[in-house]
Amino acid sequence: MAVYTVHAPPLRRYESLSAPERFALVRDGFSFWAFVLAPLWMLRHRMWLVFIGYVVLFAALQIGLRFLGAPGTIKVVAGVLLALLVAFESGTLRRFTLGRRGWSDVGVVVGDNVEMAERRFFDSWVDRPSVQRKTAVPPAPVTPSSRVTPASPGIIGLFPEAGAPR
Q1: Residue 153 CB contacts under 8 Å (≥ 6 apart), including other chains
Q2: Predicted confidence (pLDDT) per residue in 98-146, tens digit
Q3: Run of H or E including 27
Q4: In this structure, is residue 88 part of a structural domain?
């Protein structure tokens, strides 16, 4: 079973809630296409900053290895290791890009495939109150009167001691 993070796009003009058909599910884990064709995979997902960073890092790595006089096999191994890094962190790179575009993380769901994950997420999404579905809701401010004081001095942390009075 794969783990997916669900991202809601920024609200358009005159929208109070994000349209569910625009949500994006990002799979966490190894991406084969990001390993085999990393630059094309980045361009396909419109990850421009990640692509520029990858090109700069790859060029600096190859120039540095050439400057050190490393053999060709070391350069190939370094390129494969960089491709492995991109493949293992592909989900994180996509979440970074979506976050930079203003998308908000609205949940995590587990499913056998993306269709099952979508179904599970939206089944639970429909059951939520509409207040929870709004994105970027600030938490309520804490006032001095709303602080919770312990019921007795025998409580340490969140759990009472075994013999403490109640």
Answers
A1: none
A2: 999 999 898 899 989 889 998 999 888 777 665 445 555 455 565 655 5
A3: strand 24-28
A4: yes
The single-letter code of the amino acid at 129 is: P
Give the largest Cα separation in the chain, rounded.
Answer: 74
Q: How many CB atoms lie within 10 A of CB 75?
A: 14
Instruction: Enumerate the β-bridge partners of residue 2.
Output: 111
Q: Is residue 27 part of a domain?
A: yes
In a domain, 151, yes or no: no
Separation of alpha carbons 115 and 15, rounded Å: 26
Residue 10 lies inside a defined structural domain of this protein: yes
**What's the number of domains the chain is made of?**
1
User: Which whole-number Å values give the CA distances from 42 to 56, 76, 91, 144, in the listed order?
Assistant: 14, 20, 11, 49
Both tokens assigned to 108: 């995590």
CB of 135 within 8 A of CB of 104?
yes
**pTM of this prediction?**
0.69
The parent domain of residue 70 ranges over: 2-133
- 126, 20 Cβ separation under 8 angstroms: no
Spell 83-121 as b/e; 16+ CB within 10 A means b: bebbbebbbebbbebbeeeebbebeebebeeeeebbeeb
